[in-house]
Amino acid sequence: MHDQFPGLPPDPFADDPSDPAAALEGLDPGIPLDDGERLAVEEDLADLDVYERLLAPRGVLGLVVVCEDCNDDHYHDWDMLRANLKQLLVDGTVRPHEPAVDPHPEDYVTWDYCRGYADAVFRYNEPRI
Fold it and tell me: pTM score, two decimals?
């Protein structure tokens, strides 16, 4: 399933009949996004593309997001976040995945930082993205 969403780590239990997560598949099906939610995710994907083009060359590896469930920072590289958003469009859910191993927080920025940075670049410069 993860091959459908490049950027997500490979499923270590792919094609394993004893996959411990197999029992969860039927318990929590994704809820299809309504038109407004779908539009918001598509806009996030478009924004993500711009942010990556502006910030990756400056050494930013991705985004940090505060998890609503555990209240911890979760670090997502550009590809993983893109895959998560695409999966949300297709499935209405995002499957769990392993967090980044020993991330360096200074290499990640927030969505708000990205928005502000992009606004400044587009307002005061002629960006080449």
Answer: 0.74
